[in-house]
Each structure stands twice: as structure tokens, then as C-alpha cells.
Specification:
globular; alpha/beta; eight-stranded parallel sheet
């Protein structure tokens, strides 16, 4: 059978995105807006976005930073902290631009210091989220210092996520950027109110990519890349067409110097070429016929939003990835910098 040369799909959405703020925001938002119609924007700024009022102000800054002519709808989230109240949940649920609340285990990743050490004491907040059908987006890693960094997701799924889903059986949950066979299996077997996002790097790279010819800091992200068997499990999950899985890049820009420092920041910047990278992953398992669901339909269905009436076309036309992009006073290095992706996107 001849290889597919082009693929036209409804304009996709990015259901997990970091845009930063200030000049950094101005530098990166166009890379998403040129391809994606909407994106769920993470709230882990400094200080974090904890209230509806703060989310609305942040959204205004995002829209102001857009290049003229770009149409893009930022979907806002609130940062779950010990200060979150059921009243703020109700305000968020009633607001047209706030779509979820994000849980970071305290210290688990970039700007997660304001997160929660456990969900103990937050039962009224979770009950309010369940009542108002406001999704909880979870960075699913254990912060138990005795747990190996490569096991933190699987341990979280077993110890925290399973009991949470069982106790709050109607709570809408998205396990973000899953990386393991255990997480994929949990989501696949869970009720329809549980879903997951998957990044391009976790579909394309295993943990060997961190050490190919030396330390590769631009492949350092959290959750960390895992063994090849886990990558294969993620590919198998999206290859089934299961609607519980959808696109979320977790594109997370950091200035090059902060990636190359003695304590380098975790995060991979993929926004400019994310859709092309996903196409490569689906093509690798002969599943391009499943790509439209993953990229354009499953996320809107979960969030109760319409599928875009606009389209984008992926064309088998290799493109060179720039070595870097402007980022504030420095540069940000993208995934596959200086290399080639096999697909190009026409909007």
C-alpha cells in the first residue's frame, strides 16, 4: 500500500500547554496559535494563577501577545493549592474561559512549589468540582522521596489516583502527559470520566535519548522519559483509537541557559513542530487513520466543546527544524533542533 502523502483534519487543540508570561509569552504563543485553535494553558506561573480573576487577567495578556490575524482561544486553568475553596470552584465552573483546575504535587516539576503535598483536607474542594463537573488535571507523580524517579508515575497511579477515582467516582479527571504502561492501562480501563493526554516526546523517545552520545539536557522533562516498553505501550494505546487519550504537548519553553545550567530546568519545547511530530509517531505504527480522533475530536468530546470547523493539512514534505527560536533576551531550543521532521503543516 502506498504511503499516505497528505492528511486533512479539523484544526486540533492542545490540551496541555505552557505559555509563560511577559516577553517569553510574546515569543512563544504564536508557535501554538499558528496550528492549534485552542489550548489549555497551565497556571504554574510565579505567582501561580489561583483565582478566576487572575486567570482572566492572564488570558487577556495571552490575547494581547498574539500576532495580528491569528485566531486562538486560550482555555484557562486554576492552580490547586491548600487555599483553594469550594466557592472559587463554583466561580470557575460558571466562568466561560476557565475549564479546569490543575493539581501539582508539591515540588514535582517546574513552579510546583505551591502545589499540594496530599489531597487530605481538600475533600470539600473535590466534592465541589465533582458537583460542578469541573475537571481535575493531574501531574501524576509521587513525591515520596523513597520512590525512584522512574517509578513515580506508576506509584502515583497505584497509591493516589486509584483511590481518588474510586472515592470521587463522578469527578472528571485528566491524567496529564502519561509516560508508563501502568498509566495507559489504568486510563483505558477507567470509566469515561477519566482521560489522559500524551506528549510527542513520550511517543517518540525513550530514556536512552537522555544519554545519546552524552547528556542531552533538551530531552530532560518531567515526567522523565521512560523505558522503551513504556513508549510502546503509549503507542499501542493511541493506536487503538481509544477516545480516552488525546493530544497534549506539554510544550514547556525554558531559556537555553537555564536548560544547560548545573540544575537544568525540566521541560521540552515542541510547539512549532508538535503536530508533525505526532504524525511521525502515528505513522510509525501505521495508525494515521486514528490521528484525527486523537488530535481533533477526543479532547473536545471530553471537555464538551465543539470540534473546529476549520481544517489543517499535514503534507509529507520534510522540513528542517531551526536550532533555536527567540525567547526573551535569549533563545529556546526546540525538540529535534537542527534535525528534520517528515511532515509539514498547512493551515
Amino acid at each position: 500500500m502506498a504511503a499516505m502523502q497528505s492528511l486533512t483534519i479539523p484544526r486540533p487543540d492542545d490540551w496541555h500547554l505552557h505559555l509563560r508570561d511577559g516577553e517569553a509569552l510574546r515569543c512563544v504563543v504564536r508557535h501554538t496559535a499558528e496550528t492549534f485553535g485552542r489550548a489549555i494553558v497551565m497556571p504554574n506561573l510565579r505567582p501561580p494563577v489561583e483565582t478566576v480573576a487572575q486567570a482572566e487577567h492572564y488570558r487577556a495578556r495571552i490575547l494581547e501577545a498574539l500576532d495580528p490575524g491569528l485566531r486562538f482561544d486560550p482555555l484557562m486553568t486554576l492552580y490547586l493549592t491548600p487555599r483553594t475553596t469550594p466557592q472559587e470552584v463554583a466561580r470557575a465552573a460558571a466562568h466561560p474561559h476557565v475549564v479546569a483546575i490543575k493539581m501539582y504535587p508539591a515540588g514535582a516539576t517546574t513552579n510546583a512549589e505551591a502545589g499540594v503535598s496530599s489531597l487530605d483536607g481538600l475533600e470539600p474542594v473535590l466534592e465541589a468540582m465533582q458537583e460542578h463537573q469541573l475537571p481535575l488535571l493531574i501531574h501524576g507523580e509521587s513525591i515520596d522521596p523513597g520512590v525512584d524517579v522512574f517509578d513515580r508515575e506508576a506509584v502515583f497511579v497505584e497509591r493516589q489516583l486509584g483511590p481518588l477515582v474510586q472515592r470521587f467516582s463522578n469527578l472528571r479527571v485528566v491524567l496529564e502527559h502519561i509516560t508508563t504502561a501502568e498509566a495507559a492501562a489504568f486510563v483505558a480501563s477507567a470509566p469515561a470520566n477519566v482521560a489522559a493526554t500524551i506528549t510527542p516526546q513520550h511517543l517518540l523517545l525513550d530514556r536512552n535519548a537522555l544519554f545519546a552520545g552524552g547528556i542531552r539536557p533538551h530531552h530532560w522533562c518531567l515526567p522523565v522519559l521512560k523505558r522503551e516498553r513504556h513508549r510502546q505501550a503509549l503507542l499501542a494505546a493511541v493506536g487503538t483509537g481509544d477516545t480516552s487519550f488525546f493530544l497534549g504537548t506539554d510544550s514547556a519553553p525554558h531559556e537555553e541557559a537555564t536548560k544547560l545550567s548545573a540544575c537544568g530546568c525540566a521541560g521540552i519545547f515542541s510547539a512549532p513542530i508538535a503536530l508533525a511530530l505526532y504524525a511521525e509517531a502515528f505513522e510509525s505504527i501505521d495508525a494515521l487513520h486514528r490521528f484525527e480522533g486523537f488530535a481533533s475530536r477526543n479532547g473536545p468530546a471530553f471537555y464538551g466543546l465543539p470540534v473546529s470547523k476549520e481544517t489543517v493539512t499535514l503534507v509529507r514534505n520534510p522540513q528542517q527544524v531551526p536550532p533555536s527560536y527567540p525567547f526573551g533576551d535569549g533563545v529556546v531550543v526546540p525538540l529535534r533542533a537542527g534535525g528534520v521532521v517528515r511532515w509539514s503543516v498547512r493551515t
